[in-house]
Amino acid sequence: MFRCGIAYPRCRWILPLLLLFAIIFDIIAIAAQSGWVEDENAKTHYASMWKQCRGRNDLWECKTLMELPWAQAVAALMIIGLIILIIAFIISFVALCCSLNISLLPLIGGLLILAVIIQIIALIIYPVKFNEQIYEGYYIYTWAYGFGWGATILMLGCGILFCCLPRYEDEVSGMAKTKYIYSSA
């Protein structure tokens, strides 16, 4: 016999694990001291969410970006998104791993969609304002900025799955009857 489809009981462990990866990615993006933006090969200018540095070789002069209102907004939105993500992770762990509480899944999905919207706003404000106020040539958005987008994409996917999972309550709980596509009669 041939069985095809999603192994829904595994979602009970995979979704909280994916949220844990999103938390790690978000922490990396927020805590990075460099890596959001750099000029060609980071020779004379690079910036993170918190500061920008200019110079050559070992002589770098760093200046905080937190004096700029848009940078404060980006930092606040990213941190708020991370807090919402951590809350969603805790609720998902309780709802899926400790006990199966299907009624919490749409709440988790809603929290994740809210966090996605907040972080997308932050991840769009940063390059727009950076290019308006600091831009001095060719810049590359690098690894830490990419981790921010990676966390946001993971949250979006998990949010959609959490919103859809209540339809498959029997499958997630392991109580569904196995459906076979082909059986030799």
How would you describe this protein?
The protein has 185 residues and is α+β, with helices and mostly antiparallel strands. It has one domain: Butyryl-CoA Dehydrogenase, subunit A, domain 3, CATH 1.20.140.150. 59% of the residues lie in helices and 11% in strands. The chain contains five helices and five strands. A five-stranded antiparallel beta sheet has the order 4-3-2-1-5. Helix 1 runs antiparallel to helix 4 and helix 2 runs antiparallel to helix 3. The longest helix is centred in the middle third of the chain and has 30 residues. The termini are close together. The mean pLDDT is 83.
What is the fold's blueprint, element by element?
Layout: H1 8-31, E1 37-39, E2 45-47, E3 51-56, E4 59-64, H2 69-98, H3 105-133, E5 139-141, H4 143-164, H5 169-173
Number of helices: 5
The helix/strand series, from N terminus to C terminus, equals HEEEEHHEHH
Mean pLDDT: 83
Terminal residue distance: 10 Å
Residue share in β-strands: 5-15%
What does the radius of gyration come to? Answer: 21 Å
Q: What oligomeric assembly is this protein in?
A: single chain
Q: CATH class, anyone?
A: Mainly Alpha
CATH architecture: Up-down Bundle
| Structural domain count | 1
